[in-house]
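Task card 7
Instruction: Convert sequence to structure tokens.
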Amino acid sequence: MVALKDRNYKPLLLSILTLVITSNILLYRSPLSSWILTPETSGVVIGSLIDFSIIVPFLILALTRNKGFTLKRFVTWMVIGIIAARFIIPMDYFKPFTFIPYVAIAAEALLVLAEIGLIFLLVRRLPAIITATKQHDLGALFAFPQVVEEKVRSHPLIKIVAAEGLMLYYAFGSWKQTAPNGEDVLTLHKKTSMVAFYVMLIHAIVIETIGFHWWLHEKSLVLSLVLLILNVYSVVYILGDIQAVRLNPMIVRDGKLHVSLGLGKRMTIPVEAIDSIDWGKDAENVNLKDKNLIAFMAQDFETPKPDCVIHLKESLEATLFMGMRKSYGKVALKVDDPNQLKRLLI
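Output:
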């Protein structure tokens, strides 16, 4: 039903958005503009400013509501709309309102400063966050973002900073750590070629960086530096991802299934939230491209097949790259010991 509503309303919203923008452009930039408008037509200009600062942002947020409705996104689109109005409306009519773009930009700057303040708050509370993370039963991959959210707040920028902090920790600060073990712990990568695949990928990036960087350096210094930074980031991320997989096996404990696959995705599933489980051939026949399914299967040189697919009673949130969250109703799993997984879940 939700998908049907989206299909019905998106074309209508897009049509209204196009009509609002086009009508304003024709009003000020058509051959008939001089007949319709006069220098004293301030009421029409106010209406256009309302269109671009309120109506257009609301329509854009409605069209992209899957990304969430936040004050930051609204103010950003409002500033863009007002700047666009400044270029569409001729200066003869816009002159009494020249202060408005500066007010809008100032509002955006205040929001940016507020976000920077959140980062400073995160840095200030970092010692307490690290202490609380170490006391947590689960590893840093699950505990650190949760503690950050509790001690700072849930904000997209804070989630990104926390995700980058996790990457740096696993890439550089976790090599002396040992992976947990026990009857309730299952690994996902030991019987796959995931680590070998990642090592090959690192070698390819390093070789490409050495060769292509020096060639591009003679052509464009800026592009060569950008490419170098991206390649270094990629290598650091892959190193962190390998460590995150190695140090965070799947754990079934206290009635919850904690499963992750590197830095890119993790999920906590209460056992009572499981509706049914497909095993063996039934699991292999499930469509892994289903948008409602998330797969925790380590990268291999061959296409892996799931050992089981968990069907949930209702969709649960998973944390993805850069702290983004998305809900799924099915979970595909491939572990090194399927029989142990079956004993823990049945």
